[in-house]
Amino acid sequence: MASAGLLDALLQGLITGMIIAAGALGLSLIYSIAEVPNFAHGDMITIGAYLALALNKPGAIPFVPEFGGLPLIAAGVLGVAVAGSTGAIYEVAIFRRFRSKGADLITMVIVSLGLALVLRNVVLFLVGSGNINYDTERVTNTNVELYLTGNGLSVQTVQRQAGDLVTLGEWGYGWLSLLAIVVVAAAVGVGVYRWRSDDASFETVHLVSPRVFGVASGIVALAALATVLQGAPHTIDAAVWSTSVGVSIKYGVIIGLTLVTMLAMNLLLKGTKTGRAMRATADNMALAEIRGVNINRVQLVVWVLAALLTALAGVLTGWFASNLNPNMGFSLLLPIFAAVIMGGITSPYGAVLASLIIGVSMDVGVFLLPAEFATYRTAIAFVILIGVLLVKPEGLWGDV
Amino acid sequence: MALADFFISLLTFVTIYSLFGLGLNVKFGFTGLIDFGHVAYFMIGAYVTVFVAMPAGLSETYEGLTGLGLATAFAGVPGGDLLGWLVALVVGMAAAALVSLLVGIPTIRLREDYLAITALGIATILNAVFHNERWLFNGAFGIREVHEPLSGVFPIGTGSFQLNLLLFGLPSVAILGYAAYRTAKVVRPLGVRPALLGTGATLALAGSVVFVITTMTGLVVDLGVLALNVDNTIAFVLLVGSVVAGRAALTETDHIGALLALASALLFTLWYLGQPLVALVADGETADLLLNLFWLYDATAGSAGGLDYDRFFFLFTLAFLVGAYLWVERTVNSPYGRVLRAVREDESVPEALGKPTFRYKIQSLMFGSALAGAAGGLWAANIGFIDPTQFASTVTFFAYTAVIIGGTANNRGVVLGTAVFWVINSGTRFLDDFFPSEYAQQLAALRLILIGALLIVILYYRPEGMLGEQDYDINLGRGGASDD
């Protein structure tokens, strides 16, 4: 029986980071293209989560007619889609008007604050302040337990079923195969990076940056080899070191969904005409307009995209934590802002990377600090942000 | 609760939050610093004032730091507990200013949006610290042993009923009369026709609300309210009449402010004097009317009535507000205040003229925070119990809303905006009585939706707020102040 350790905290942090990244991606777009430091972003997350709730569990909301409810997947997709149209409403009804009046940054901050107040209280008005969760199947956690013994690494997957611990699978790796796995995976990663970056020149625009490609193929190679080279388990009684990592299907879904979303955003920004218009607008709105970019259309796309992303983050948060409440978005607002500013507000890629860093440092920090500091999870994100602002106010990655 | 008592408590709230808003106006209105962590200084002022004044070992349930007991330290001197409390308040203000200095030194150079988010984060973290660390100030359990200065002295009276009535009643009537006179001065330029139309519209609106409320006995979402009956038809006709008259009044005059003042004065009169007047006419009952007119006089205090502690505390906070108002006015009207405004407009200009703008910004931050701290100390004494949930970041946002509604960089506007905000947020609470109690949370949310929408609408149609920026003794001259 191994106990949870640093590795578990790392994985938790990765999930937190992925959820923050979905929000941060949208905020970074709004921040750089619409030039609104959007304080309503957290409450947009809440709205997205509750829209899915309205479709998933209509009985929980007094003003929605009872129709039995959709499964969470359908409700989530529909909810995110509906949330996208609310993004269009914010842009057309509020922010477009203020932009056409030439409102400055301070005004935009306060306007978004007003919107945040309205959104949060709409939720309070319709649903109330209590905790609630989605109507969906319970997901059981599987613990992957790693034991380091004299003969190599041994792996056990354990699940708690009806109160009893059941061992699902057990296998091991000898020292040689472990070494082989690590070396080959590293070689694959480096090789792919070299191969992708050999055409690098000033004009090259990589759809996926060689570094990301390299790391991704390294991880794929690692997973593939680890599956292929499974050997007999070792006796774990004499384990030198052991740790347990909790995983569940939720982890895979969250990582997969956010990765796909990021890839889609990447394709949109780099591969389409709208994406080029968006990047041009972010660079210089007046110049883009002179060159024939339809600014209003670009801004509309930005707000819809941001609303979609926040709704995704909301649904994932609500599902992952099995809990929705009207404050869920606001508590994510600070880490999201921290990620966006840390990544450099004009860089969506920086925002994603910074989200991962912040998510990991929040969870690893809570793990490393004494137990009574667990309530300061958000504060950790903030300390990082303040540190970055003081040392490098333009963000870690600056412009892309 | 009698209407007059509710009126007093509402006024006390408005006074304390106006003081809080004045502090925000120094930072945000006059210097242009977006401090989204303003509530942190309110919280620090409240906690430190309570902590310094609180004697040790008053309660078993308190596990925080032992209080300094300044409230009892001057027990020998007459009015010693007030003196001790005042010292505690000064310490609270100093603590708030000091913390803002520590926060300001690293963050004040940041861009405005970064400053906003950083300040919000610091306030959130400070709140979490106060919430979690029980050894500090009893954590989430809060402090119940709040010293209320001079609370032992009240109620005071002369022992004679007539004299008491004269002493406290006459100033009350005089204040109401003066308020009516000032309102009349504002409404005067309106002209007869728009004024009559406005009056008609307001009365019709009020009548329609009365009809709806009196017919509604049960649920809010009861469709029966919409059914066709005599009361509903009258209410509907009145509502339509109100809208028609209101539109007509708006098209006939440019003095929208005067029209609004007229409508609010009428609504206030109906709310405050209308119900007792009905009682007077119907049952010959004069007690309510007299109580409302002589609102500073409390008949239930002591044997012959007198001034109770709540009423005294309102006057006490009012004195603080007046003092702070004069202080802020003096500051912004001085050459010093002109530098602050220059920093707000374009920091590089005063910098080029050799002004140490960093120091000016820090000082403005500390000044505003000290005022927030004073408001916090008064808040604690008014409520009699503090815990960290009272100091959530929404309080900052409410203050911003109030300042912006009233008029950014206008000290009178702060008071007006705070009054408007709290009338919407608390003054309409009497409407709750007409709805089932389980809808209280919905109604509270509805008010905040209304306030958020009002904030956006004001920013769009009248970004300078209801009153606009104030005039200064030292002005740049007509036309010289524009940007181009």
UniProtKB/TrEMBL annotation, chain B:
Keyword Cell membrane on this protein? yes
Q: How does it sit in the membrane?
A: Multi-pass membrane protein
Q: Which chain positions lie within coiled-coil regions?
A: none
- What keywords were assigned to this record? Cell membrane, Membrane, Transmembrane, Transmembrane helix
Spans traversing the lipid bilayer: 6-26, 38-58, 82-102, 114-130, 161-181, 202-221, 233-250, 257-274, 312-328, 365-385, 397-424, 444-461
Q: Which PANTHER family match?
A: HIGH-AFFINITY BRANCHED-CHAIN AMINO ACID TRANSPORT PROTEIN BRAE, HIGH-AFFINITY BRANCHED-CHAIN AMINO ACID TRANSPORT SYSTEM PERMEASE
> What is the species of this protein?
Haloferax larsenii
Q: Which InterPro entries match?
A: ABC_transp_permease, LivM-like
Pfam families found in the cross-reference section: BPD_transp_2 (PF02653)
| Record bears the keyword Cell membrane | yes
Full protein name: Branched-chain amino acid ABC transporter permease
Q: What CDD domains is this protein classified in?
A: TM_PBP1_LivM_like
As for subcellular location, the record says:
Cell membrane
